[in-house]
Amino acid sequence: MKKIYILLILFSVGITVGAQSYKVIVNNTNSTSALSKKQVSNLFLKKEKKWPDGSKVAVIDLKGNNPTRKVFSSEVHSKSTNAVKSYWQQAVFSGKGTPPVEKSSDQDVINFVKQNSGAIGYVSSGTNTSGVKTITVSD
Amino acid sequence: MKTKKLITSIVMLFIVLVSTYAQDEWEPKVHLTGYVNTVVEYANLDHLDTKLGMGLSDAGFLASYSPIENLELKATLVYTHHIPNIQSLVVEAYGTYAISDNFKVGAGKFLTPLSPVNTYFYAPLNISVTLPMIVSHHFLLPQSISGFQVSGEFGDKVNFKYNLTYGNYTNLGHALGGILEVQGQEDITNVLPHIDLPELETQYLLGGSARFEASFQDVFSLGLNYFDGTQSTAIVAEELVPAKKYSWGVDGHLNLSGLKINGEYWKGQQQTTDLAQNLTSKYKGYYAEAMYQAGIFTPFVRYDFIEDINGSGLQAPTTAKSLGVAIRPIFETLFKIEYRKVNVDYAGGITNFYDFQDNYNHWLFSTVISF
After folding, report:
1. CB nearest to B33's CB, from A47, A92, A117
2. What percentage of chain A has pLDDT greater than the value 70?
3. Would the ipTM clear 0.90, i.e. be above it?
4. Which of A29, A110, B93, B283 has its CA 20 to 30 A from that of B46?
5. Mind listing the domains of chain B with CATH numbers?
6. What is the DSSP string of B235-263?
7. Which of B21, B23, B26, B27 is the mutation pick for testing A, counting most A CBs within 10 A?
8. What are chain A's domains?
């Protein structure tokens, strides 16, 4: 019985760790302060390519095996990372678009967003995001 | 003097545009992707030496590179075990420059930018093991066009796209596919062995395509397509004769919470330009398919019809009914299982003079490994 309790505790700890959250960040000069999940999804899938002021969106993503990307794909796109990769494979082969540049670390994403006025990216919630603007993502 | 002024103005405008974009830091983008498609198939055609086949059906490799924000270079190589010539290995190799989203210019060799080819040509994009016959037969529209292209799009939620391409194309005839080499030449298989003329496949003819598409919030899209073979060749009494041809098609796509319905209708005509050998041939093809994605499983059904001109100059209306499921447990691996029933109707009194089977059953299994 004890073993079962220990396993259950380990399992719930695992779930808590797995449910790592994210922060969506934009360049400090960007006037946008809140977006819906649907809007964020459209921006990352390049279905919407411009900010309200007409400037171009530059999307930056994390590598496919990054745990934050898994959470982001599931919560924002309502898809697995595999399904998002399939979406981009379709787009690349059919000439409809290319996937965003992928970075290995949160810091690389932050650096890119700092340097590009139209950039949007996401990092894990615990990351220090000074120098960029964190926006609110609503359902 | 006027030309000098114009050139100076264009150069100045270019510098202003480049410096505007250069405010942000552009990172060159490289994207590599590819796949290997291995097929196992069984067709109960009596005249086949072997009814069961397995092995590599096709393998593709795509590389794209954007050295600056508005320029993209892309090349795709696809190997199949029946390549009529080395040029056919290079399916696409082009560069496009986006002056804006509304206007892009390109040069090189393009996969014919009409709906069906782009949707199905590459194995990871197609949930079926086989291509719709209007794609594999290549008679309504060629596989690739080599020349120049302009394209663009307008709007967000309601989006309009256009694409105009003009250049040389080659007739690939009925493309052999799969392992038993019955895919893509269904009607010929039942009449004769593959007899598309090699001279026909290597000719470089002039032609162009136009596509207009309207889509509504990614839920529904409607496309209009036109291909004009300014130059074409017809086979009259086993001789190649100059001709002209045109084809047009409409396509509709519905995408609603995992449910996808695609339909396409094409019609065309080829007319010889040599009055001494006057010949007009009409051809058409269509398909409709429905699929539903539930997690890793995507079951599908497809109905396919083609009535075109085969290598022997015959027109045998052919239908194929497909039922299958695609399974993608991980991104890198896609399995497809399919049953297909092919029926040939020898219209106009043309008989199956080799006494081959008219109709056959086709079972297929495919493993697509991609990265």
Report:
1. A92
2. 86
3. no
4. B283
5. 25-370 (2.40.160.10)
6. EETTEEEEEEEEEEEEEEEEEETTEEEEE
7. B27
8. 20-138 (3.40.190.10)
